[in-house]
Write the structure tokens for this entry.
Amino acid sequence: MRWVAFNMSTDFKEFKKGAKRTLPIAFSTAIFGLSVGVRAQAAGLTLTELSFMSCLVFASSSQAIAIELWKLPLPIFSIILTTLFVNIRYIPMGGALAHIFNELPKKKVFPSLFIMSNSSWVVTLEQEQFNQLTAQGHSQPHVSLSFFLGSAMTAYLNWCLSSILGYFVGPLIPHPERFGLDFTMTSTFIYIIVGTWRVNRRLAPWFTAAASSVVAARLLPGTLYIVVGALAGCAIAAIFDPTTTKAGGSKPCI
């Protein structure tokens, strides 16, 4: 069993490597976490409610949306539906990392996937594609589970702590948009796009995802444009991926 046996020296080295690779994104995400904490305090959430939301939901975009909708009486159905569409992207994201968890029992797979985020997902895939580009004939291109966990745990702790800290900072920042805090999540995704572009220079999926999202945002309600953009981009990547094998498999589209 490749990952069940824990090699302290090798695995901890990979864990630290994953954590280190996540730090640049973590800084931007922490600013966004502060912003979410500020908005949660302004919306009337208690510290306990925010803490449970950040540590148990652990989904930055959907948390921000839920907080924006957090008005009495609570629009429960709208919150559930919106967050469902925002987070449905985790289905293909988890599938793209399935090979990492192949030899793990489900009781270990589910906790690992629970702490997966945009940051850890893209850092893991970017590292794997880098390994594949630089691997020698005898080298193992796949990223280890320890690398993923190092990245995921860094992102998880960073989000929980920064959003909780933002709750205390809230009274000091009544208008966070004046300081550009509402742009922090956008800047995080820009960083992610630049990082993946260095490894995978294919314009068609990016252009398709962006264009279809813009059109869908004008024609469809709520956050459906996120799903439309993601599916359209992945479809183009799968159709025109030059690495697609004869067996029908292809590398994940990012």
Observations:
- The chain is about 70% helix and 0% strand.
- Residues 203-242 form one domain.
- Residues 1-8, 244-252 have pLDDT under 50 and may be disordered.
